[in-house]
Amino acid sequence: MRKLQVQGVHHITIVGSTRQSAIDFWEGLLGMPFIFEQPNLGKPDENHLYFDPGDGRLLTVFTNESRTDAARPAPREVGCVEHLAFAVSRATFTQIPARLQERGIEFLERDRGFMNSVYLQDPNGMKVELACYKFQTPEGYRDADVLMRAHQLRMERGDHHIDDIHLADAIEDLLAQRARLAH
Question: Could you give the CA distance from residue 167 to residue 110 in angstroms, rounded to a whole number?
Fold first, then answer.
């Protein structure tokens, strides 16, 4: 049986509260340009806001002016989204804690071995991650190529998780592979 072949994330849609709450968070805090809005064609009592998360794809939010911000953690149950993660540059990542503190927004910072993360919640309790890889992907490769090779090295070495040494060695291996193919 043949597989369907996806080619990346097209868009993500979340259920929000009000139009202004969505704009304040997604554009005002996270800097995602507000692209346009139109009625939700599948549910006439909702509006549909479109934001650019930075890669030209879309994050959309269904809003309704009769709703209020949930202001509680979103459910973490089977079938629910645990969190949404967005890429940020290293320069931006280093500024996140101070900028969130200025706004009185609670957050949690984590070192994930191959990346750093800051977690916060949107006004409706959905967990949002701002993530920054610890490596620069060589030209002609994808982030996934580096991570797959780093994982292979980690497993071969019996290490607990991917760390800086695995990333550096993975990049070195990929560049050596490219050099061998060029000759």
Answer: 18
Segment 104-113 long-range contacts (CB within 8 Å, at least 24 positions apart):
105/29, 113/161, 113/162, 113/163
Please give the structure tokens belonging to residue 32: 């995602």
pTM here is 0.90
**pLDDT tens digits, 140-159:** 999 999 999 999 999 999 99
Count of other CB atoms within 10 angstroms of residue 90: 11
Task: Output the six-digit token pair for 180.
Answer: 């061998």
Residues sharing a CB contact under 8 Å with residue 59, sequence separation 6 or more, in sequence order:
11, 12, 13, 14, 26, 32, 50, 51, 52, 53, 84
- Mapped onto helix, strand or coil, the DSSP state of residue 36 is strand
| Structural domains of the chain in order of their starting residue, each with its CATH number | 11-70 (3.10.180.10), 82-134 (3.10.180.10), 143-182 (no CATH)
